[in-house]
Amino acid sequence: MAPKQAEEASTSQDAVTGEEISSTTIPPSTPNRDRNSSQQRNAFTELLSPSKKTPPKPAQSPQTRHDPTAPTTFAGRSGLGAYIHAPESFPQSRVISFNESFVTINDLYPKSSIHLLLLPRHPEKQLLHPFEALQDPVFLASLQQEIRKLRILVAKELQRRFGKFSAKERKREEAMEKALDSGQEIDESSLPPGRDWSKDVISGVHTHPSMSHLHVHILSIDRHNECMRHRKHYNSFATPFLVDVEEFPLGKEDMIRRMKEKWLDRDLVCWRCGRNFGNKFKALKEHLEGEFEEWKKE
Q1: % helix / strand / coil in the chain, to the nearest 5?
Q2: Is 98:55 a contact under the CB 8 Å cutoff?
Q3: What pLDDT score does 16 carry?
Q4: Are residues 288 and 224 in contact, defined by beta-carbon separation less than 8 angstroms?
Q5: Are 21 and 14 in contact (CB under 8 A)?
Q6: Which of 25, 161, 185, 213 is most exposed, with the fewest beta carbons within 10 Å of its own?
Q7: Which strands, in side-by-side order, build the sheet including 102-106?
Q8: What stretches of the chain adopt beta strand conformation (E)?
Q9: Average pLDDT, stretch 4-27?
Q10: Residue 148: CB partners within 8 Å, gap ≥ 6?
Q11: Local structure of residue 182 (DSSP, 8 states)
């Protein structure tokens, strides 16, 4: 576990706790030499692909060159900067993939069964509020394209993890097995469609980011994780506090309205059945355990 500074206070609009904010990330003094700035393999596709070939290692561009042995510490709200600064210094269990433009990591405090963060490395954008950064149409288009790729990846990983529990997936598999047993050629168009896991992925930016560096959340819809411990944790992903990047660019009035609203103080409402739990997070948490099991079975 990463070392911590003295706990930093969180504000009423922070979606995370002071403990989470205060987690400090320090790149290891010895970088992982098997990783490089153009690396495209990641923890999920490693599981999905039988290939173990190592990609070539082109030189880093001047934009991302750095001294990996430098004693750089990114503390508190600047913690995400470590991954942008030296992504190759971290294990693949933390940094999933990176290139000159983006770094994708597993969230240190995930709020769903799968929770990724996409970190842009654009030097002029990485410290801007997302509402400001995403006004740039060129940058927005590149970010949206990367998010779409990651949403597909998360959907595939959901299918890999939970497909065996899904009734829709089972129905499709049974139809395929029946066709194979009868010696028939499989006609994909005649098979049951199976489950569309892409509908179980959400993504976006927070209206009040708790961390300084620009980041986009890409996560499964279940909100099932031991790190989901507070009302604000849940509401930061169950209310318009999370803004889909596909909604950008936003108008000025819309930005002001979203910033003023106290989304985190809203009643707790189950994402799946719509039941209102008021401010009773413990009751919601217990309820979500059951909903998670039922969701897997869909």
Answers
A1: 40, 10, 50
A2: no
A3: 80
A4: yes
A5: yes
A6: 185
A7: 95-98, 102-106, 115-120, 216-220, 201-206, 242-243
A8: 95-98, 102-106, 115-120, 201-206, 216-220, 242-243
A9: 67
A10: none
A11: T
- What pTM was estimated for this model as a whole? 0.82
Quick one: tokens of 157?
A: 């990983």
Q: Does residue 151 contact residue 198 with C-beta atoms inside 8 Å?
A: yes
Q: Which two tokens stand for residue 89?
A: 């210094």
Helix residue ranges, H only, 182-251: 231-238
User: Alpha-carbon distance 53 to 32, whole Å?
Assistant: 17
Structure tokens at 121: 């490395």
Beta strand 115-120 with 201-206 is: unpaired
Compute φ and ψ for 61, nearest 5 degrees. -80, 160
pLDDT band at 35; cut points 50, 70, 90: low
The CA distance from 115 to 124, in Å, is: 26
Angle at CA of residue 36, ends 61 and 138, nearest 5°: 50
